[in-house]
Structure formats: structure tokens, C-alpha cells
């Protein structure tokens, strides 16, 4: 009898973490490495949030809380949805987890039976398919190409739905592409979903506040209120408030689903960190100036990276609407050989050669389900990005 679970064989380690780990190993060896693989803001958590955490510690708020969030944090989350998304929720419809990833994981584990299908537009965040597989479901991938703006179309969604479809996972703005859906594009999708009452929507809005050029963010339940009773709207404080390490995500959904997710969480992690919950409450209820300041910095960095990569031979880099990623095509480099002698047979070979030969760490496109591309996270300093782009350009110029 095998010791390890069969279900563990369904999934693979995170490719983004693997690339970040390899970059760290090379850095430890004394190599000059520029890491563009991790999806993490490089800014400090705002001062008012840090002070709220310190105050919570001093006040002795260090004990267990309710399994899926304190009443005061749930109230703050209801206020956020009302204020920013015109969505009305009660605390019984709110769940708080140890990061947005746990909200997604809990929802899929609590609802999927063997063979249930989950539509996953590609390119996708690397964890979606593995979460579905771990829960016994079947991910159904729908390619959304560069020519489509990396967005799912109504026609493609309609074609992917079957009697076994239980969820559509929708991430806007997207990791890895930065693509986002405007009101009309989202309405086209919700119109399809109205015709299929068996399909629920799991919307990952974690990059909601990182949108550029005046883009107006929308979420499915906001665009089509008739869908609200089968939508789980996930969000969190990690990206908007530079709180990745605090590990607080939250979701809004019908109360029966929230109750089922709490049941699962009660037997896994139990409550999220009490101090982090009070910090998240301060983030949602406090001044929001930081969001505009970080958005301005990220837009400047986006423009720097897009312009620089489009100057590289063999690379085509579209301009994303949000998040802090670009997802360039390297179609023009496939089949060539790097100056270091690596055959660029696919985007993984490209990413590995780029790291080994130039010290720039990116993530290959196959990890996100769409090739030949690579993902750059521009959540680092302007100086680092300028140097990284220069190295990538030199690498591309050396390919033949």
C-alpha cells in the first residue's frame, strides 16, 4: 500500500514558487539576480494598518476568533462591497480565510464532486487547475489568446458549458496577463450564464484596485444582480494594501455556501490570524490614499516594461489593463538559439536560458496554460526593471 495519497499525484508544485526558489539559489551563489517572478508588491504595508496591528496586540487580541472571521471584520467587508461595488451583503454571507487562496480552495473543496467540471480560461493563475484536481473536479481549459486580449468571449464560454459544469473561474484583472473585463465584456459573459442556471461563478477580484488609464473595474454580481445567488466574489487585502504576508482573504456568497466553507475551515486551519484580521479591518475602514499612490507607481512601471520589451527582437508585449504583470509573446524567438547555446524550443527553455545567462527570473507561459509567452511581474523598483529590460533585450539580440 502506497504511503502518499493518490490525490497528491494529481497536482504539481507551483511553477512560480519553483522559479523564485531557483533565483534565490543563484543569488545565494553570488549571482546578480533580478527577480521578476514573484507576484508581490514591493511597498511596505501602510502605517495606519501597522499601527492597528500593534494596538490589537497591546489590547490582548491574541486569542481564537470565530472560525471564518471576526464580526467587526465581516462588517467592514460588507461596507467595502457596498461602498465600492454596490453589492449588499450580510455578515452571514461573508467568509474570511488565510489569504485569498484559502477562500478559493474552501469553495472548490466544499462543492465539487468527482467529475464536476470547472471552466478555467487560459492563461490562468497556476493554482486554479490544481485546486480543482485536488477537490476531485475536472478543469476545462478555454484558450484566450493575445489576439483576443487574453479575455474569454461569450461564444467560447457557451461552447465550454456542459451538463457537468459547476463553476466558471473568472479573474479580472488577470494573473498572469493583466487583462480585465469592462462592463460590456462582462455583461456578455453574464448573459450566457443566465441561460445556464447550473453554473456558478467564482470571481477572483484580488487585483481590483490595480487598474490603469481610467479603467472602470466591474465584478459579475454587480453587472448582473440576477446572478448574485450563484456567485462567490473573492477578494483580499494582499495586493491592494501590500499585505501579502498578513494572509487575509475574504469572500461573499450565499449563506449556505459560506456555512459549508466555514465547516471545512473549522477542520483545517480554523480562524485566520487574529492580529491580521484587525489589521485588515483598519485597511478597509481607514484612509485609502495608499491605493492611488501605488496604482500610479505600478502604471509607470507597466509603461516602462511594455515599451522596453516591445523594443526586444522577437517579443510582442501588449499593454495590460491592470494587475502588475505583463504576458509577452516570444513567438518570434521560438526555434532560435541563445548566445549561450540553448535551443529555444519553447517558453520554458527561454525562461531557463534567460535566468542562467542574464540573471533575470521570469515565469514561462506553459505554467499558465498558454504558450509561447512568459510572465513578468513589475512589482519591483524602476531601476531594477530598467536593468532587467536591458538584459532581456541583449539576450534577444544574441539569439540567432
TrEMBL record:
<protein>
    <recommendedName>
        <fullName>Aminotransferase</fullName>
        <ecNumber>2.6.1.-</ecNumber>
    </recommendedName>
</protein>
<dbReference type="InterPro" id="IPR004838">
    <property type="entry name" value="NHTrfase_class1_PyrdxlP-BS"/>
</dbReference>
<comment type="subunit">
    <text>Homodimer.</text>
</comment>
<dbReference type="InterPro" id="IPR004839">
    <property type="entry name" value="Aminotransferase_I/II_large"/>
</dbReference>
<dbReference type="GO" id="GO:0004069">
    <property type="term" value="F:L-aspartate:2-oxoglutarate aminotransferase activity"/>
</dbReference>
<dbReference type="InterPro" id="IPR050596">
    <property type="entry name" value="AspAT/PAT-like"/>
</dbReference>
<comment type="similarity">
    <text>Belongs to the class-I pyridoxal-phosphate-dependent aminotransferase family.</text>
</comment>
<dbReference type="InterPro" id="IPR015422">
    <property type="entry name" value="PyrdxlP-dep_Trfase_small"/>
</dbReference>
<feature type="domain" description="Aminotransferase class I/classII large">
    <location>
        <begin position="32"/>
        <end position="392"/>
    </location>
</feature>
<keyword id="KW-0663">Pyridoxal phosphate</keyword>
<dbReference type="GO" id="GO:0030170">
    <property type="term" value="F:pyridoxal phosphate binding"/>
</dbReference>
<keyword id="KW-0032">Aminotransferase</keyword>
<dbReference type="InterPro" id="IPR015421">
    <property type="entry name" value="PyrdxlP-dep_Trfase_major"/>
</dbReference>
<dbReference type="InterPro" id="IPR015424">
    <property type="entry name" value="PyrdxlP-dep_Trfase"/>
</dbReference>
<dbReference type="GO" id="GO:0006520">
    <property type="term" value="P:amino acid metabolic process"/>
</dbReference>
<dbReference type="Pfam" id="PF00155">
    <property type="entry name" value="Aminotran_1_2"/>
</dbReference>
<keyword id="KW-0808">Transferase</keyword>
